[in-house]
Amino acid sequence: MTDHILSLITFFPLFGVLLILLTSKRNAEAIRQMAFFTSVITFGLSLYPVIRFDRGTYLMQFTESAPWIPTWGVHYSVGVDGISLLLVFLTTLLSMIAVLSSWRAITERVKEYMIALLVLETAMLGVFVSTDLFLFYVFWELELIPMFLLIGIWGGGRKLYAAVKFFLYTLSGSVLMLVAILTLYVHSGDPQSFDIQGITQAAAGFSPKMQFWVFWALFLGFAFKVPMFPFHTWLPDAHVEAPTAGSVILAGVLLKMGTYGFLRFAIPMCPEMVLRPGTVKIMMILASVAIIYGALVAMMQKDMKKLVAYSSVSHMGYVMLGIFAYNMQGVSGGILQMFNHGIITGALFLIVGLVYERRHTRMIADFGGIARVMPVYAALFSVFTLASIGLPGTNGFIGEFLILVGAFTSHYRIAAVVGAFGIILGAAYMLWLYQRVIFNPMVIKENQKLTDLNLREFATLLPLLILVFWIGFYPAPFLDILNASVQHLIEPLQAFQVVMGP
């Protein structure tokens, strides 16, 4: 089993799908239990590579490879390094929490819903463990179907509009990415192969013109998924209309697929292109605009879920700022912030979902003073609010601090200043949200009947609460996982130095 641990982790959710298919849809409780225990076992399996991971090497570990379509040079090849390992762990954790959070929220078509969640988990895991470009693309596209169904069937009032918009936007980017993949495959040498490591080595020797077209095709494919400004317009609609678990997965994992694509493909495959001052300047501008724009628009929202959605646009801008700093602090901070964003924003969507299940409204004006009747809820809300702001002692501080240090030491000082200003705006909209929902006078009588969190609801937030403080006070174990892989990523780039004016 340990020789095939990544395959077991990736495809074990499909075993749960098989069990659910054999269960009558009338037995909803049994279906929930099977989905939950499947996700718990998958999470437990994902702990094995985390514990046994060799932190001293950048090489892919727990690798498996077998011919799939030999005529085309396609293999079933999987493996993880420090970058992908954290994302595999995040995926299994949030998938388990997503199933648990849906226990009472989803009462119709429970069987189909749980199947969609488990298939989505397999697709997301496949993206992060694939070391064959063809296999990566298969999982990348497979993820669209269950998420489309989750939004389109179990979403809110404008669910079909949001689902179609999500599908068309991300598919558009995927088509451009496919063009880049085919270009890389055709020009990778003889014999042709989809092996990511081999293609990366071959692509580094491409002409500047070839790298130009490959990079921008990959850029559009990944920018839609992040989403970077101005490709973000599908995100608020998808978040608002998706069920709570769908929003948790969308913010926690799916957005990271875009930033992971930049780290795994765009940067190492097009080193000359990404080091051009013009390219770096464009990335810094887009990241800086996303930070400020996302924060300002979040500040104007009346819907709690939409506010958290726009905060994701701002926070993903920090991730991109760190990645394109091209140094240890910036890139490590960007990757850690990818993980942190999944934890914090996933928790915030759960927080919003918990009161929505009770009041069936997400309008900020419909709440106020609920700390009196929901003290545990108010306490947890405060922790995740402060983590989102980046308070020292929480995981949000560690990631943002490293990103800003990386940006400043790489001479991207204007971008670093913009990022620091974005933290102030983030504090403004999050604290304002917290004040209006938790501390304002309780003028609406329905709020007096609200009940505090039960044991199951507290259990959904507890793992995220632990990680907020663990990373906040002792981030070393997580950064140690990243160090060798990040160093290997930036070593080829350190031969050049991109300097932007202060």
Characterise this structure:
By secondary structure, this protein is mostly helical. The protein is built from 20 helices and two strands. It has helices at 5-21, 28-52, 82-101, 110-129, 133-142, 144-154, 159-186, 196-203, 208-225, 234-241, 244-269, 271-274, 277-299, 304-323, 328-359, 375-389, 395-409, 413-439, 455-473, 476-490, and strands at 61-69, 74-80. A two-stranded antiparallel sheet has the order 1-2. The radius of gyration is 22 Å and the shape is globular.
Strand percent estimate:
under 5%
Q: Spans with pLDDT under 50 lasting ≥5 residues?
A: 496-502
Instruction: Write the element-wise H/E pattern from the N-terminal end onward.
Output: HHEEHHHHHHHHHHHHHHHHHH
Q: Could you give the distance between the termini?
A: 54 Å
Task: Map the helices and strands.
Layout: H1 5-21, H2 28-52, E1 61-69, E2 74-80, H3 82-101, H4 110-129, H5 133-142, H6 144-154, H7 159-186, H8 196-203, H9 208-225, H10 234-241, H11 244-269, H12 271-274, H13 277-299, H14 304-323, H15 328-359, H16 375-389, H17 395-409, H18 413-439, H19 455-473, H20 476-490
Antiparallel strand pairs: 1-2
Helix pairs in contact: 1-2, 1-4, 2-3, 2-4, 3-4, 3-11, 3-15, 3-19, 3-20, 4-5, 4-6, 4-11, 5-7, 6-7, 7-9, 7-10, 9-11, 10-14, 11-14, 11-15, 13-14, 13-18, 14-15, 14-17, 14-18, 15-16, 15-17, 15-19, 15-20, 16-18, 17-18, 17-19
